[in-house]
Every structure is written in structure tokens, then in C-alpha cells.
Amino acid sequence: MTSFLSGAHGFSFKDLNVINAAPPAGDPLNGPIPDLASQIAPGALHDSAERCDAPKCHPETRVAVQGEIYSWIVHGDSDPAQKMVKIRWVTGPAGTGKSAIMGSVADTCKRDGVLVVAFFFSASASPDRRRKTALIPTLAYQLAQRLPGLKDSVSQAIQNDPLLFKKNLHVQMESLILTPLRQVTVESKQPGVVLVDGVDECEVEQYAGSHASPRAGESIERTKDEDQLEILEVLRDAALDPAFPFRIVIASRPERVFREFFNNESHKSWFAPPPRSGREVQPQRRHPFVPPSEVQ
């Protein structure tokens, strides 16, 4: 190789150190964690550039529901029968400020040092925010960033199964989040929350031949309800796992799949009513998807 000093003269060097700039083995620019980062939806993070114009609650509005959500995240439920319930639902028609509430709660948690990871679905945003594919990798990436002890276990899971990102959500949750959590010590008293907003805006992920029909060569298309239910079920299963110390808040419109899933006395929810003059979002209890005037 020709030296860039070839032919030069009149130079002298003192205390010259030659540094090898080649990336060492295990360099952070290569390996499983960057592989994980390539599978996430960056725009779905609560503080992403893509969400810079996302609505936020005015400091003096929606105080009641924000306060209840935050108090539940940090202190749990005052009802002894609800102490072990770690998943809640924020619901209301379109335009009632659900995303604003979730964004403001995320900001408050971050400000107060409460661990928060989030995924904001949006049918009008980048493609990876419209599908379920990036959900678990995005949550796992945030947890690995906030709990560095998880990185080795997450990296090992990706190395053990190069096709992990093609597996179903339950397998991804087990491999990327639950198993790593079992292998590290996470302070169970440390408050933390997973916020998943706009699940009703998650569009269906179609797979060729995913459902066999009675007629050969035909297939039955998946529905968005099936994908949305898969998301709900995998989050519920995580919340029930003893290794998972965090609370989960899900926000969506009160569509049928969500009403049926949350129509259970063990799940308390918050209802976001249509905006009216000076009216704040108020928490609903037994009938989370019915406006207060219609609760019997």
C-alpha cells in the first residue's frame, strides 16, 4: 500500500502512537442489540421526533384521569382485591384525548424518574406504527436501554434464534422480555409502566395461506380484530407473569374486541367522554365504555 507520506521529506515525529481504529470484536455498532434496533418502530416512542406535534393535555385539563393513572402506576390500587391487577384500559370515542392523556402520563413518569416504555400505534403515521410486527421489539429495546442488565439476555435470545423477529407475539414476548427479566434482578418495588396507545388503529398483518379454508388453494384473510386481540392477550399474559414487575395501560376506542376483552370485574378502566365545555376526562369504573349519563 502506498504511504500518504511517500516522497515527503523534512518531517520528524516524536512520541508517535499508532492506533488501530478497526472495530473490536463485540463492537456496539454490530451485534444483537443493533439487530433489535433495526426491528423497532422509532416513531412509536412517546418522545420520538415523529410525535413532536402529538397532542398533550393542557396542564389544567384532564387532571382527574391523569392523576388516577399516575397514582395507580406508582402506588397500585387502594382496593385490596385489585392489588394484583396490573393492566388497565383507557377508552373513549375518537377525539376524546386518549393519546394526549397517554402522552402526558408518559412525560410525567419520565420527569419523575418512573420507568416508562411505550408504543403509540397510529393508522396515519409511518407503516411500522400501523402493524403489530414492531410492538415487542420496540418494548424490549426500551427496557434494555433502561435496564442495562437485560442487554446480555436479550442479545443471547436473538443469537439463539435468528428468526425470532418472524415469530408470533407470544414467542417474542417470552424470548425478548420475560426470559431476560427472569435472569436479572429487578426491584419489584420500583414503579414502572408499559403504555400502549391506539391499539384500535393497528391494521391487520396478512400472511399468505395463514388460514386454510375448506377449498384447496383458498385462504381466509385475518381480520384486524384478530391481530388486536393477539396484542391484548400477549400483554395480559405478561401482566400475569410473576417475572413482569410493571403495570400496563392500554388505550383504544371502545370497539367490540376491547369491550369483550375488558368486560371483566377484575379490570378497572378509565372512560374519556366527548369533549364538552370545560369538562375533563373522568374515570369510569363498572361500565368503562358507557358514558356516565347512561350508566344505570
Automatic annotation (TrEMBL):
SUPFAM superfamilies: P-loop containing nucleoside triphosphate hydrolases. Pfam families: NPHP3_N. InterPro entries: NPHP3-like_N, P-loop_NTPase. Residues 269-296 are annotated as: Disordered. Residues 86-206 form the Nephrocystin 3-like N-terminal domain. Keywords: Repeat. The keyword Calcium does not apply. The keyword Repeat applies. This is Nephrocystin 3-like N-terminal domain-containing protein.
